[in-house]
Amino acid sequence: MPFLIVFGPLSMAQGMHFEVFLLAGQSDLDGRALVKDLTGDLAHYAVPQANVRINFSAGGLHRPLLINDRFEPLRPGFSATPLVKINTIPTQTFGQEVSFGDSMARFSGKAIAARRICGGWQ
After folding, report:
1. Of 86, 90, 92, 95, the residue nearest 65 (C-alpha)
2. Which residues constitute the domain of residue 83?
3. Alpha-carbon torsion 115, 34, 60, 68, what sign?
């Protein structure tokens, strides 16, 4: 089902159609890979993906809540490793969202919006 998400101020509103995905899980969805390791064949994941937007939240139950308040271009750093006390995005870690967003955009040929919600202990 197509959705319409509007970005920007109302005076300059620009509508785009997105394929929308809800990604929900525990700590395994959050990811623990290091952004600095996106080199070589993985380097294309290290840059923002213009055709993929993400809205992210993690924690809140057993650890501090980390949340971004808007959909923004997907890039590494939407992860909240519980042992690192950081409360801003981007962080130095990421999960499977970077390859998921890229793969779904290439497969569908459409813009992607993902709402990613991560809970769990560690």
Report:
1. 86
2. 19-118
3. negative
* Single pTM value for the model: 0.76
Domain assignment of residue 23, yes or no: yes
Q: Which residues pair with 72 in a beta bridge?
A: 54
| 46 domain residue, yes or no | yes
The CB density around residue 20, as the number of other CB atoms within 10 Å, is 16
**Of 76, 74, 79, which Cα lies nearest the Cα of 58?**
79
Q: Which residues have CB under 8 Å from 10's CB, separation 6+?
A: none
Query: Does position 122 have pLDDT exceeding 60, yes or no?
Result: no
Within a domain: residue 5?
no
The answer to whether position 9 is within a domain reads no
Look at the chain and report how many structural domains it folds into: 1
Closest CA to 16 of 32, 35, 2: 2
Give how far the C-alpha of residue 76 lies from the chain's centroid of Cα atoms, to the nearest Å. Answer: 8
Mean pLDDT within 57-69: 75
